[in-house]
Amino acid sequence: MAAPGWEPGYGAPAGGGPAAPDAAPAPAPVPAGAAYSAPGYGATPAGYGVPAPGWEGDPGPDDPWASAATGPDGPHEDPYAPAPQGTGTGGGEAYAAAPQEDPYAAAPQGEGRTCVACRAGHVDTDGYCEHCGHAQPRERDHLEEELCSVAAVSDRGLRHHRNEDSFAVSATALPDGSAATVAIVCDGVSSASRPDEASAAAAGAANEALLEALPRGADPVEAMHGAILAAAAAVTALAPPAPGAQNAPACTLVGAVVSGGVLTIGWVGDSRAYWVPDDRAALARRLTEDDSWAAQMVAAGLMGEAEAYADVRAHAITGWLGADAYDLEPHTASFRPDHPGVVVVCTDGLWNYAESAREMAQVLPADAADRPLHSAQVLVGHALDGGGHDNITVAVVPFAGPAQPHAQTEAEPEAEPQARPRA
Length: 423
Known about the structure:
Radius of gyration: 20 Å
Strand content: 15-25%
Order of helices and strands: EEEEEEEEHHEEEEHHEEEHHHE
Shape: globular
Structural class: alpha+beta
Helix content: 10-25%
Distance between the termini: 35 Å
């Protein structure tokens, strides 16, 4: 059931995806034919941050998409945050952008790099400081991109030796001259081989497919479906040529497209999208339903939410991209919100610390629509402050205008999925 004030969007949620609110206004028009993209790389190894007991749903007892486990309480002060900038408000405001002081920022490339630890010594060709011996962060350890009112941040986190997430953000012009904004976030499956390569291949392929389809007028839902299939093909191509090869590269994917007053979401796996209205008195929503063992148990009525997510199998995914994926069925859904807000697209490295839509809204700064990069930094800082057990990747996509409702068709039932454990 749609939340009060929401109109269901057009386009059937493919593969049994959740039905939730619509979101964010399209950015300022882009010159016809223009296309801009900025790929990024970040990581989120799965299997961390198993929800604590004591689940609660978002407001609205009859809303099937508002329930989620509650994570750590509220925003925390980020010990890694540089000095605050500006006057924005919201949880984790201290994690303001200040690249020169960011301990996770990639050090400049080329000769004469200064050590990020002691800020005095020079970095040798092996990546170590000649003065203090500190190993310098790799380029993919922490990345940030801001482009045409969309921004994304990816961080290795505090427990993993590499970042296995990736993202891509881009903007392009539609045939009528209006703009379309794209955000793709992928999480490499840590138990598979080369998860970092899988997520990078998927994010790049999905982004390219959308930038090819949207400018020629393709329906956003169909374009998103095709983009997920293109991402799946790119990850499958990484598998060894030997037939029946085990442990093929794999990843999850979630993407958002804002175009023509419509928010289109697509996903496979347990990376998520949330809708957070600018008016925090309005109801925030989770727009995706996990492809996971726990979600499957709850949906089948076999277990309650608290029981399912407390199980050691809770985070075993039942959908992924890769050569050994079982009966790939991309989920897509479209929404037309009647008020402005932002879409938060993220890996479980973030949502493990802000499970419910209400929690996500509490952590997200109130000025997120005006400062998407800052807001993404705040969210990453919240996860780091909570323990940073996983790689963390998040994209923040503003949606600014109300739109007219369209009819939404029923979702077709999914085939029984098979579970794949994640490390």
